Amino acid sequence: MITYVTVGLLGLLTLSIPVGIVLFLLGFGVDAFFSPFPLVKGLGNLVWSTSNNATLIAIPFFVMLGEILVRSGIATRTYAALDRWVSWLPGGLVHANIATATMFSATSGSSVATAATVATVAMPQAEKLGYDPKLFSGAIAAGGTLGIMIPPSINLIVYGFLTQTSIPRLFLAGLVPGLALALGFMLITMLLCVLRPSLGGERRVFPLAEMLRALVQLIPIILLFTVIIGTIYKGWATPTEAAAVGVAGAIVIAALFGGVSLRMVAESILGTVKITSMIMLVVIGASFLNFTLASAGLGQELQSFLDGLGLSPLGTIFVVVLIYIVLGFFIETLSLMVVTIPIIVPLVVAQGFDPIWFGILMIVLIEMALITPPVGLNLYVVQGARKSGRMSEVMLGTIPYVIAMLVMVAALIAFPQIALMLPDALQ
Predict the structure, then answer these.
(1) Which of 37, 243, 342, 396 falls 20 to 30 Å from 273 in CA-CA distance?
(2) Residue 342's domain spans which residues?
(3) Which regions span the lipid bilayer (predicted)?
């Protein structure tokens, strides 16, 4: 059954059928050919129970928060401020790409939204200042992946919902690995630009007074992050309530900077509806597919397969990592999560691993899928913002950052406390 489902999934995706529809079609197929019961009769109840969950309300709020920040002009001012602080490093403005992506990851919760924000603001600077298009665009695509690691993260909310794991603890667990990845991206950029200075373009040093004035532009993002994460960890608000507070705060900040208009609000709402609809279609479709797969016995089949390999718990983790790397080439990231979590996570937890730790490990692997062809969404987002050049340039530019992610995967496996030290300390 595993073979049939995998072939069917890849085959339907190659036909450019929307992912959510593909998941429903596979669910119907599994029901028809492998299940002893007509599971489709429970579809209505399944759709209702999946979507009728207060936790998922956080998703449209976090999406709208990112939309408001982008469309109100706060993104442009943040990028300009960070340019003044990090462009003296080897690599110049490339570091501003990574730093801006890190800042927006702390509010938007979406990798694609983060990559689109930074690409829209940064790309006009690349050609004007003579940067290597591969490294410049690759840094944006890689930096955008931090949106699903650094809290608040939509993907971590989905993981917590599907595994019944504490979302605040997941947010805490993602903070250190997310910041470590951002620093890793900057370190590998500096190394490349020291070895080949032509990659980094011009290094610029700004007067201290101008740098200090630029800090004012960073206050909105820092304030929003503090409010959202602080209210969650203080127990004053659930993630959903904190997201709503964040949206209200973003509107107030945008108004103070003169970025609120009827057009901006309308575009933000429309963008939120489009993105949320796509996410919910995938979540509901994957829930139906997982329901049919579980009823048809896929969990036991996969458990028997892993038991047959005779692997140690560590060996099992390496097999799971390899599975995610391979599937990440072909399956969109959110779909990959919601399809595999109900099957993989119980097997991993049964081996004695912490579900919080595994959630962060999975997110790093999901981040890799965002910048690996042929389905890496961030590659297409950045290429779309470039409006010229070849797609292969973006792909080549992400290779150093994929290596950094692999190093983080190895570090998380070797030292689980990288992810667990904050949740354990604040428990």
Answers:
(1) 342
(2) 54-280+307-425
(3) 7-34, 54-74, 135-158, 170-195, 215-236, 242-266, 278-298, 310-327, 334-350, 356-382, 394-415
Asked if 147 contacts 111 with a C-beta cutoff of 8 angstroms, the reply is yes
Residue 148 in domain: yes
Read off the tokens for 340: 């595999």
Residue 83 in any domain: the answer is: yes
| Domain-located, residue 43 | no
Which residue reads 């080439």 in tokens? 329
208-215 — which CB contacts under 8 Å span 24+ positions?
Answer: 210/84, 211/84, 211/85, 214/80, 214/81, 214/82, 214/84, 214/85, 215/81
Q: What is the pLDDT of residues 203-247, one digit of tens each?
A: 788 888 888 888 888 888 888 888 888 888 777 888 788 888 888
Number of domains in the chain: 1
Q: How far apart are CA 254 and CA 249, in angstroms?
A: 8
